[in-house]
Amino acid sequence: MPAARRQAPATAPASDRAGKCRRNGPLGLRYVCNGTTLGSDLDGRMGAAVPDATGGSIRVVALVRGLVQGVGFRYRTRSRAEALGLSGWVRNLPDGRVEVVAEGDRAACHDLTDWLGGPRAPGRVDAVVVRVERARGDLAGFATG
Predict the structure, then answer these.
(1) Catalytic residue among 45, 74, 97, 106
(2) Where does the chain have alpha helices with state H?
(3) Are 57 and 110 in contact (CB under 8 A)?
(4) Hey, which of 72, 89, 114, 123 would disulfide with 67, CB 3.0 to 4.6 Å?
C-alpha cells in the first residue's frame, strides 16, 4: 500500500507584533516596512510619509539582522549614505543587529534601504526592518557609532 502523502497545512504569513506581516523579498531576505514589504511597495510607503518643513525629506530607521557586525558593515553603510547625500548615523546593537537612521531625499533613502539588503552590503544580511518617519531636520553629517 503506498505511503500517504502529508499535505503541508495552509499557513498565513508569519506576523510581527501589531499585525505587521513579514514576506520574503528579493534574494530571499525578509523585509518589513511599516507592515509593507520593501521593494515596489516601498515607493508608496515612502510617498506616504507626509513632507513637512524639511522640503520633502524623510527619515528611515532600519534594523539589519544577520552577520553584520565585525565585517565593515557600519563603515560601508556610512560611505554609501554619504555618497547619497544622507545625514544620520549607524551603530551596532548589543543583540548583534545594526541600527541605521538616515534622513534626506526619498529616492536616496530608498536607494540606501535597497543597498542594506542587497548583494553589495558586507557580511550576511538575513532581514531588514525599516520604519519610515517624517524628517526632523536634526541630523548633520553621517556618524558611525
Answers:
(1) 74
(2) 40-48, 73-83, 106-116
(3) no
(4) 123
| Amino acid found at 92 | N
b or e along 77-105 (b: 16 or more beta carbons within 10 Å of the residue's beta carbon)?
Answer: bbebbeebebbbbbebeeeebbebbbbbb
Distance (Å, whole) CA 106 – CA 46:
7
The answer to whether residue 34 is catalytic is no
Other CB atoms closer than 10 Å to residue 13's CB: what's the count?
Answer: 11
Q: What is the pLDDT of residues 68-113, one digit of tens each?
A: 999 999 999 999 999 999 999 999 999 999 999 999 999 999 999 9
Whether the full predicted model's pTM is greater than 0.85, yes or no, is no
Phi/psi of residue 131, nearest 5 degrees:
-115, 130
- Burial class (CB within 10 angstroms; exposed 0-12, middle 13-18, buried 19+) of 55: exposed
Residue 96 DSSP label:
S
Q: Is 91 a known active-site residue? A: no
